[in-house]
Amino acid sequence: MSRDLRRRAPDASASIATVATAALILDFLAESERPMGVQEIAETLGMTKSRVSRHMSNLEMLGLVARGSGRRGFQLGWRIGRWGQIAAGRMQLPDLLRHPLDQLNEESGCTVLLCGVAGGDAVVLQCLPARAAMRIDVQPGLMLNLPESPTAKVCFAFQPRERRSELLDHASTRGDDFRIDDRDSFLRDIAAVQARHYSWGLNKFGIGHAALAAPVFDRDSIVAAVTLMLPTESIVPGPPAPYLLGPLLACAQNCSRLLGSRHIYPTV
Questions:
Q1: Which 3 state secondary structure label does DSSP give 66?
Q2: Rounded to whole angstroms, what are the CA distances from 94 to 6, 101, 103, 122?
Q3: Consecutive 10-residue runs of the chain (268 residues): their mean pLDDT?
Q4: Is the pTM of this model over 0.85?
Q5: Which of 14, 47, 154, 227 has its CA 20 to 30 A from that of 95?
Q6: Residue 75 and residue 73: Cα distance in Å, rounded?
């Protein structure tokens, strides 16, 4: 089978090697058009048959893989199907939230992003470009990363404390551009985001824009962030202008209401 090299498991430390291997197997089964046997999986992925067999036993017990018809080979299991249904529902967010996002786009005159939570980072789900000559286009699927991205900070800040601790431990091992070295300073920044319900900053890499982001909740959990993208030359020192912050927080609150949340946002 011809496989896209971008689908290979990422480099992993020994502590997560088992998880990375399981992810590689599941990815292979997702791409397969029929149930695959242990020998086929082992040969294709360059593993020993005994190693694959151990993984398949554990994955089957967890409902992540299931036997094919006639118990020949393995395919993705019921739990993967359940996750897929949940993810598909969340990927409908752009349609569900279209009205408040359009309203913000028109009122602010800025590019508006709807971003999903992606671990400790954020991923762009939708971009509504500014209706002006100075427009910023952002491709859906782009990752916005800690520690610099205001959108990623918002997505991190409102996750449960235990989850934030896990993500922070992981972030301290990343490459130079995405590693959090000063933990105390970062946590003070996050506390401010939690209190204000927004994060605001210039792009670290100097590509000509700034971002202002606020959280969106589904009941009690953060599921997304709404972000305004602005040209750097329009930025003045200090906090964001009320004419931008007010509509952004109102939009985030309206989005949350549509998703069944009663989360209280601060007033501007």
A1: strand
A2: 26, 9, 13, 15
A3: 43 67 91 91 94 93 84 86 69 88 94 89 90 74 87 94 88 78 92 96 64 92 93 73 95 95 91
A4: no
A5: 154
A6: 7
